[in-house]
Amino acid sequence: MKNNILIVEDDKRMNEIMLDYFEMSGYQVFSAMDGIEALAIFEKEIIHLVVLDIMMPKLDGWSVCRRIRQKSDVFIVILSARGEEDDKLMGYELGADEYLTKPFSPKVLVANVTALLKRSQQKELPNQCLQYNELSINKESYTATLSGNPLLLTMKEYELLLKFMEYPGRVYKRDVLISAIWGYDYFGDGRIIDTNIKTLRKKLGVCAKYIQTVIGVGYKFEVTP
Question: What pLDDT shows up at residue 190?
């Protein structure tokens, strides 16, 4: 499965160069020219790493970084023409994983990104399983188990559970889940998410509490000790 990269850079030429390098390295790439556009893409797509410029129109990189960190632990690589120590400290305090000063080598950037993403891949078991306490899911066999016993899930229930387990703590709006699971052209009843969450929780038994309702927003997967 390809990792998804979000490039946020208002310099059109630099944006295109980075996009080309990442695509040649096998990544799926989304790009934005300002902070508002970046946050809109982040809400709609599953993003594994953000390459974030600081000086941008509409909403600067510091603000984008802060807002992303409020809801996600996705990797963030900050790009800036300012190499002062205070700026780097600001980036790390806001939760950035890496800080590169312009000008930089696109090859070095890709190498840094690859190294960061390997950290998250090491958290997964060799057979492409994700496990939280009694609950586990296998991305190759499309199966899930609870305390070692198979869970009889529909494909939509499985896809919802996988999305939650891949990004614990991330809050998903209902329309984002509908677009991701049912497709952008789905025009049915929006309550289909609530219905599927209800049946999924019932099947999860003691682990139903992991899928938490965020009132007025949607749902998130939060593993309690």
Answer: 66
Task: Give the chain's radius of gyration (CA, Å).
Answer: 19
Domains of the chain: 4-121 (3.40.50.2300), 129-221 (1.10.10.10)
Predicted TM-score (pTM) of the model is 0.55
For the chain, list the strands marked E by DSSP. Answer: 4-8, 28-32, 49-53, 75-80, 98-101, 129-132, 135-138, 143-146, 149-150, 172-173, 211-214, 218-221
- Is residue 76 within 8 Å of residue 65, measured between CB atoms? yes
Q: How far is CA 76 from CA 33, 192, 202, 218, in A?
A: 16, 33, 36, 24
d(CA 155, CA 5): 26
The 10s digit of each residue's pLDDT in 91-129 is 788 888 888 888 888 898 999 898 888 766 545 445 578
Q: For residue 160, what are the CA distances in angstroms to 7, 172, 195, 201?
A: 26, 11, 12, 11
What are the tokens at 87?
A: 């700026």
